[in-house]
Design brief:
Blueprint (H helix, E strand, L loop, with lengths): L5 H7 L6 H12 L5 H12 L4 H13 L4 E3 L7 E3 L7 E5 L5 E4 L25 E4 L2 H6 L10
Parallel strand pairs: 3-5
Antiparallel strand pairs: 1-2, 3-4
Length: about 150
């Protein structure tokens, strides 16, 4: 969930408030886990003309500032979200690619602890759960693609 309105978010990070930045933040608020094409389409609906390259640039600036999180599920284009700073994880549907948030597995960040750190100072753990969303699982035969544990 976004912390506040886009103008305040940008100013808190000492970023210039521009129409494309506001449009991108608003697009991601309405469409969590959106890819660049979706963000660009929604931003254009809001403000008219904005190039895809400008959307990439805005997403990079917002990501660098910690206002946007980039996630990269295997086999999928990069997705972006405004839910940042809480070390949550994701569920990804193997069929349609739908993504849902999952709160941290256990405790505070990194919420998972590596058996061996190799000298790294770990500050975040990222987990992706894969499966079928309710819509896709209802259209498949119950045993198709199921794994027993």
């Amino acid at each position: 969930m976004p912390r506040t309105d886009p103008t305040v978010m940008l100013r808190e990070k000492s970023l210039r408030v521009t129409r494309p930045r506001i449009a991108v933040l608003e697009a991601l608020t309405r469409h969590p886990h959106a890819d660049v094409d979706t963000v660009a389409r929604v931003a254009r609906e809001d403000i008219g003309s904005v190039s895809t390259q400008a959307v990439y640039d805005v997403l990079r600036v917002l990501s660098d500032a910690g206002l946007v999180r980039r996630i990269e599920p295997a086999g999928s284009p990069a997705r972006f979200e405004v839910r940042v700073g809480d070390n949550h994880h994701h569920l990804v549907c193997r069929t349609c690619g739908d993504i849902a948030d999952v709160d941290c597995a256990v405790g505070d960040a990194p919420c998972l602890h590596a058996v061996e750190t190799h000298g790294f100072v770990i500050d975040e753990a990222e987990v992706t759960y894969w499966g079928l969303c309710p819509s896709c699982s209802s259209t498949r035969h119950p045993t198709e693609g199921a794994r027993s544990v």
